[in-house]
Request: fold
Amino acid sequence: MPIVVQNVGRVYPTGTVAIENISLTINDGQFVSLIGPSGCGKSTLLSMMAGLDAPTSGNLAVSGRVGVVFQEPALFAWRTVRDNVSFGLQMQGVGKEERNARAEAALKMVHLSNFARSYPHELSGGMRQRTAIARALVTDPDVLLMDEPFGALDAQTRSLLQSELLRVWEQTGKTVVFVTHGLDEALTLSTRIVLMSARPGRVLADLAIDAPRPRDTQTDPSLRAAYETLRELLTKEVESVARAEHDRDWEGMSKPVATAAEQFGADI
Ligand SMILES: Nc1ncnc2c1ncn2[C@@H]1O[C@H](COP(=O)(O)OP(=O)(O)OP(=O)(O)O)[C@@H](O)[C@H]1O
Ligand SMILES: [Mg+2]
Reply:
């Protein structure tokens, strides 16, 4: 069982209670999407899984190696694509020949072999994000943690990278935890969707998604049903954030929910 989260809470020194009493067990090979309103603690939970942050209450254990991909690829401008990908191995003291071979194998997985000697500024946004995925894959992690990795990409590139990620997941059997604002993206990719409440983040719904692949979220009846269930819950949560943040302004406005949802970052 690679990820066990038990009654985890995180209170920041500022007093913000980011998440409260979250319990989740994520099994080997699951593809879990975390969704929830902006500010509900998704990134906080992922950072704790990555070991970049620690809970202030409860226990969190991740077994095996972890690779992380963020929304922004954050590549070194002065290193080639291959040397960006192999950087972590270099830090581990892996010799040059081996790290180049492993970086090239990782680049092959994301179809970027022909750009190994390019520099980040010569790549498109999608290619830079593929480089970041290759960088996360190069250490052969058991768990891949991804925080809105395709959020900044155009729809076509996002769809292409979704397919590539699914292929890597199917080929390698890695466990994936994937934060997204896109319900459609979560339904396309996941074996399980965990919906978090508005801050402080708690688990509001935990759904197994077992529709056959390749998936068509528009026509598959079980995906349509999951979409409706999640959308309704998410809309309520987003609305409650909007109410809290707009305070009295909100009351007289009776804003359409879709507008509030857009404003608060939920792609529903
Ligand atoms: N280092 C920090 N210090 C203080 N508060 C923080 C810190 N990091 C995050 N927070 C607060 O904790 C809450 C959860 O933040 P987090 O970034 O985890 O949310 P999120 O669900 O990832 O949001 P988004 O969907 O906008 O990315 C927010 O209210 C945020 O302002
Ligand atoms: Mg976040």
Notes: The beta strands are 3-11, 17-26, 31-35, 57-62, 66-69, 143-147, 175-179, 192-196, 203-208.
